[in-house]
Design brief:
The complex is a heterodimer. By secondary structure, chain A is α+β, with helices and mostly antiparallel strands. In chain A, 51% of the residues lie in helices and 15% in strands. Chain A has three domains: 7-120, Butyryl-Coa Dehydrogenase, subunit A, domain 1 (Orthogonal Bundle), CATH 1.10.540; 124-224, Butyryl-CoA Dehydrogenase, subunit A, domain 2, CATH 2.40.110.10; 231-376, Butyryl-CoA Dehydrogenase, subunit A, domain 3 (Up-down Bundle), CATH 1.20.140.10. In chain A, the strands form three sheets. Chain A has a four-stranded mixed β-sheet with strand order 1-4-5-8, covered by helices on one side. In chain A, strands 2-3-7-6 form a four-stranded antiparallel β-sheet, with no helix packed on it. A two-stranded antiparallel sheet of chain A has the order 9-10. Chain A is globular, with a radius of gyration of 21 Å. The two termini of chain A are 29 Å apart. By secondary structure, chain B is α+β, with helices and mostly antiparallel strands. In chain B, strand 6 and strand 7 form a beta hairpin. The N and C termini of chain B lie far apart (62 Å). The chains are: A alpha+beta, B alpha+beta. The interface between A and B is large, with 40 and 47 residues.
């Protein structure tokens, strides 16, 4: 497949850019933060996104989606990154719908995917337990009891925790922490007895939270996929999730870079525009080259998913590691080149560096993915 | 059967019949590339035979038009030919600056007579070309060049000196930037001329590099003569042609940034071993190699993307500068990692046990990649000004 966007994708990208620049900008995020929004996104904006079909963009048409594939979803996430648009695109559309597609039975997919595509249901993955992404270390326990499962343990970094109607909780049904076998996925409704949802406040002013399971009783029918066999579907979903997050980071990085270039063309010191200084020009040019590489690897990774490549792990870790690296340097350079004003809350650049770091850490940061890239490369 | 399929069948059969067994062996060193010329350097007599057979069909330069000796193949046919050659391990029949640099400039700027005169000889490998660009006082500031061309009726009289002329001592003709007028700004008054090196007024002297090899020369012109029918474009318009040609040179050099056949990570594992978890034993080196391989993958994807975009009629501004900058920096990183991975065995200079210093000599040669064809710093200047629109100092 040629590494270019087709006509349909270009139109999608442009309409998303137009809509978000109007309705879900940094100014909107600032307002959500300053009003101490519980959910961290606007229901009205999300409602319009659903109207445009975004909630089902990558869901097959057979399950009520648009079937645009992950390249389509990636383009939306990139534009969301450019505008710092808050919505359940990541939690529900990118991660949960993918995992349900990977692990769910026909009946479960029938029950959940059309509801997600119609914007009736928000679903979020509850995976991480410690401060770092370490899926095989999952220890939240699920014990069998009279044909049900009893869940005990805690989860953090659960995206849109306070808004989700249903969680996909990764729990250990056998084996020991560190083993891939023995992990199972359970559908747990937010109002289930014994489940406590905590809103947490992270630097990006979005909506990640924590779950506490205290003897949460789940019927066997809520098992998603095989008992003890969630690993393969989970990893594939995480690979896809990381490629989607890499798309968002591409948008964040491109936007801060472009804003910084504009600033270099405006700000005067020593009687001349600071963009005329070679010390800044070369750093900007190097970053531009890195951004071009970042754009290529993200597109290649998105296409790998849509081509039906069975193993997307290597390209997923490559894309996430590269985008973590580029986003880190783009946001750091943005602040440095803006100088003092870049340090102020009043100026918008700070919102980008805050969002970038949270996305970088979600489902594995640079260090995690570069290590995994080396491992998958055989050394 | 579709036309393309038929072309594939015929090509396969022809290659089987005509590509000598010896030309299906792996390229071992620079000497195995066939550059043609009046007195071609060869490591095997079949090199010339193979080149002649391919040239008869125009397939040494398959994408050039038939009327100039090329193959006249479509882009699809060119890639089929490439695939079929790769399938049997066939070497490229001819590599030359005529193909990669002068040819594209002639096709773009040359008159009909000039194309008919020079392109077929490039296709057949009859004339080996070199490039007269840099001068001792005009390196990065190429446009300040001073080699003087005086108009003498039907010809120019050329006096001055070029430097870093690749393979000047082995070349037959030169495409050369000369100053025909010094009254205007430095970019004006430059002309692009072609002339024969086999004349009294031209001498060359190879320059020995830190790698021990001498691919470059100093080239001296003492009343050398260039026929005016070999002035390309208009007099004084040479800078435009020079820049066009440089983008081709930069794309060629940036190819060095491609991933090597055996990955550096694999080489490191073989040389240094793994820890109990199967990871390379030194975690610092492992990280450096991983970052290099990651960047190489992203660079490869960028070359592919820009190629596809240009086919789709979109273009990335100053793509050749990005490729030149990034590809050559990558190649330098690869060579440094090679040295780290090989340790003592990479430091050898001579002797069988060191393969005559292949690793250290490649490493030293790679330092020139980010200088030749425009330094990395010049590429960054171009990106900053032309793509990002940052102001001049």
């Amino acid at each position: 497949m040629a590494l270019v966007l087709n006509e349909e994708q270009v139109m999608l990208k442009e309409s998303a850019a137009g809509f978000l620049a109007e309705n879900a900008t940094v100014a909107h995020l600032r307002a959500l933060r300053d009003s101490n929004s519980e959910r961290g996104f606007s229901d009205d904006v999300w409602g319009e996104m659903v109207q445009m079909g975004w909630a089902g963009i990558a869901i097959p048409e057979a399950f009520g989606g648009l079937g645009y594939g992950y390249t389509g979803l990636g383009l939306l996430l990139e534009q969301a990154g450019r505008n710092l648009s808050a919505s359940p695109l990541q939690s529900t559309v990118l991660v949960a719908a993918t995992l349900i597609g990977e692990l769910g039975s026909a009946r479960q997919k029938e029950a959940l995917l059309p509801a997600i595509a119609a914007g009736q249901k928000l679903v979020s993955l509850a995976l991480q337990e410690g401060p770092h992404h370490a899926p095989q270390q999952s220890a939240l326990s699920a014990a069998v009891n009279e044909g049900d499962y009893i869940l005990n343990g805690t989860k953090v970094m659960v995206l849109d925790a306070v808004s989700a109607h249903t969680f996909i909780v990764i729990a250990r049904t056998s084996g020991a922490s560190g083993e891939e076998q023995g992990l199972s996925a359970f559908l747990v409704d937010a109002d289930t007895a014994g489940l406590t949802v905590e809103r947490r406040s992270l630097v990006d002013s979005r909506s990640a939270g924590a779950l506490v399971c205290d003897n949460v009783r789940i019927p066997a029918a809520n098992l998603l996929g095989d008992l003890g066999g969630a690993w393969v579907g989970l990893i594939r979903s995480l690979d896809i999730a990381n490629i989607g997050l890499a798309s968002e980071l591409l948008g964040v990085s491109t936007e801060v870079f472009e804003r910084t270039i504009v600033y270099l063309q405006e700000r005067k010191q020593f009687g001349r525009m600071i963009g005329s200084f070679q010390g800044l020009q070369h750093r900007a040019a190097e970053l531009y080259a890195e951004l071009e590489l970042a754009r290529s690897i993200v597109l290649k990774a998105l296409q790998a998913i849509d081509n039906g490549d069975q193993d997307v792990s290597l390209i997923a870790s490559a894309a996430k590691a590269k985008l973590c690296e580029v986003a880190q340097s783009a946001t750091n350079e943005a602040i440095q080149m803006h100088g003092g004003i870049g340090m102020t809350d009043e100026y918008d650049i700070g919102f980008f560096i805050k969002r970038a770091r949270v996305v970088q850490h979600t489902f594995g940061d640079y260090n995690y993915h570069l290590d995994r890239f080396a491992q998958l490369s055989g050394f | 059967m579709s036309d393309l399929n038929q072309f594939r069948q015929q090509t396969r059969a022809w290659l089987q019949e005509n590509c000598p067994e010896t030309m299906r062996q792996r390229i071992l060193g620079f000497g195995d590339f066939y550059n043609g010329g009046r007195n071609p350097e060869i490591t095997h007599p079949d090199q010339k035979l193979w080149c002649d057979r391919m040239a008869d069909r125009g397939w040494t330069v398959p994408h050039w038009p038939k009327e100039y000796g090329g193959g006249g193949l479509s882009a699809e046919e060119v890639s089929v030919l490439g695939q079929e050659m790769t399938a049997i391990g066939a070497r490229r029949a001819l590599d030359s600056f005529g193909i990669s640099m002068l040819g594209p400039a002639l096709l773009h700027f040359g008159s009909e007579a000039q194309k008919l005169e020079h392109l077929p000889k490039i296709v057949r490998g009859e004339i080996r070309w070199c490039q007269g660009y840099s001068e001792p006082n005009s390196g990065s500031d190429l446009a300040s060049l001073a080699t003087k061309a005086e108009s003498k009726g039907d010809h120019y009289l050329i006096n001055g000196q070029k430097i870093w002329t690749s393979y000047a001592d082995k070349s037959d003709w030169i495409f050369c930037l000369v100053r025909t007028d010094s009254s205007g700004t430095k970019h004006e008054g430059i002309s692009f001329v072609l002339f024969d090196m086999a004349q009294e007024g031209v001498t060359t002297r190879p320059i020995k590099l830190i790698s021990g090899s001498s691919p470059f020369c100093e080239t001296f012109f003492d009343n050398a003569i260039a026929d005016k029918k070999n002035l390309i474009g208009e007099e004084g318009n040479g800078w435009t042609i020079a820049k066009y040609l440089l983008t081709h040179e930069r794309e060629m050099i940036s190819g060095f940034g491609a991933a090597p056949k055996k990955s550096v990570g694999q080489l490191a594992l073989e040389n240094m071993g793994a820890d109990a978890s199967g990871r390379l034993c030194n975690s610092i080196l492992r990280q450096n190699i991983a970052q290099y391989q990651l960047d190489t993958m992203a660079f490869g994807a960028t070359m592919a993307r820009v190629g596809d975009e240009s086919k789709a009629g979109q273009g990335l501004g100053a793509a050749s500068s990005i490729f030149k900058y990034y590809g050559t920096e990558l190649n330098k990183r690869r060579n440094e990692l090679n040295l780290a991975v090989c340790g003592e065995s990479g430091l050898g200079w001579e002797g069988e046990e060191y393969h005559q210093g292949a690793i250290s000599r490649d490493w030293l040669r790679s330092k020139g990649n980010s200088i030749e064809g425009g330094t990395s710093e010049v590429q960054l200047n171009i990106i900053a000004k032309r793509v990002l629109g940052l102001p001049d100092a």
